[in-house]
Design goal:
This protein is α/β, with parallel strands linked by helices and 208 residues long. The protein contains six helices and nine strands.
Length: 208
């Protein structure tokens, strides 16, 4: 008689269901655990002075990223959402977090000249249009050897491509055709296996 009630048998849909319940310090983060691990390694490697996060939601991811910066003893996080969003109050007291509530298109990029190393994480509505607009606006400010991370290209593999009009992967493909200074960094995309990430083909490294 087996002591084990279940075999090892999980599917992408199971991981998707679980990621909706991921939290950090009790605040919903909604992040794939693979990418959580990748982020702490990537941020230690890049040592950013500024992380721009597009899409706050409740703010678990913002808290996690800001605490990683705290461990680096440098950097701040600008997390951007809309005025209707109700982020967790703990974000407002974190010394490395600044919250912006007017959407990423209204974010004032004139302040970015004072930061030497900038990393951008796009975690907005995941539509083709929004991802491409964020790429066009913020890619120019990403530092050499840093990243623009387009999150949740996994929507295509989950059968939701039509819902997001092609989603992030369509935007990435179009962007890279005209921007040879960025590459898909397979080091991160394929760390746990080929595109074993919710940010499918989404770790974009600026090489010059």
């Amino acid at each position: 008689m087996s002591f084990f009630s279940r075999n090892t048998n999980f599917k992408l849909k199971d991981i998707e269901a679980g990621h909706f319940h991921v939290a950090y310090k009790g605040v919903p983060a909604i992040k794939c655990p693979f990418d959580y691990v990748l982020y702490q390694m990537l941020i230690w490697e890049v040592q950013p002075d500024l992380i721009i996060e597009i899409g706050t939601n409740k703010g678990g991811s913002a808290l996690y990223l800001a605490d990683l910066l705290e461990l680096n003893k440098k950097g701040e996080l600008h997390t951007i959402d809309l005025s209707v969003n109700e982020e967790d109050a703990s974000l407002l007291s974190h010394p490395r977090i600044k919250v912006y509530k007017d959407g990423f298109m209204n974010y004032d990029t004139s302040i970015l000249s004072k930061y030497e190393t900038i990393l951008v994480i796009e975690d907005g509505p995941h539509t083709y249009e929004d991802t491409l607009a964020a790429l066009h606006k913020f890619s120019q400010f990403v530092s050499k050897n840093s990243y623009f991370i387009a999150e949740d290209g996994i929507v295509s593999e989950l059968g939701r491509k039509k819902e997001f009009n092609g989603g992030p992967q369509k935007a990435i493909s179009e962007f890279l055709k005209k921007n040879s200074n960025f590459i898909i960094d397979r080091k991160w995309c394929d760390f746990f296996g080929i595109n074993a990430t919710f940010n499918v083909n989404g770790y974009l490294k600026k090489i010059y």
